[in-house]
């Protein structure tokens, strides 16, 4: 059976609708940075997603090729994630999506090293005929955060964000969004196959103690 991060590490991927505190450990990611409204046709964001999945599946399917990755185990490619921010704004202004900066991400198993990443970039570039120069290999320890499950349209996220901020205030914490820590979303649903009202998204806000 392929290892499924979402099922095996439910504390990271299956929070309740009510906000909760979590200390997120160090993890490895494929990432692409970009800017602009993610919903626009041919947006940087949509191109980033294509690149991330091309590399992630190249690593997953290496088991069928000649390149043998040390300590490899089969895995279900984890859900797409994103860090979002807007210059000069603390939080998110959903009315101005054209101002978004993002880091689109897919988590990697721990067996992926820089050498494995470099191989996967070259392999995917050749097989998929993609320019992958802006795909990065990132290790990140997110640390203390408050998270909650949002169900419904992405445009309705402010209601869940309000619940998270209320939890933060009630527990004597502070929002800790800065140049290194950002509003974080994990997309548990495929919007191409899921009704808008049923979309499931983990919303995660970095915090610190007062």
UniProtKB/TrEMBL annotation:
<dbReference type="InterPro" id="IPR011256">
    <property type="entry name" value="Reg_factor_effector_dom_sf"/>
</dbReference>
<protein>
    <recommendedName>
        <fullName>GyrI-like small molecule binding domain-containing protein</fullName>
    </recommendedName>
</protein>
<dbReference type="Pfam" id="PF06445">
    <property type="entry name" value="GyrI-like"/>
</dbReference>
<dbReference type="InterPro" id="IPR029442">
    <property type="entry name" value="GyrI-like"/>
</dbReference>
<feature type="domain" description="GyrI-like small molecule binding">
    <location>
        <begin position="18"/>
        <end position="208"/>
    </location>
</feature>
<dbReference type="InterPro" id="IPR008319">
    <property type="entry name" value="GyrI-like_CCH_Lin2189-like"/>
</dbReference>
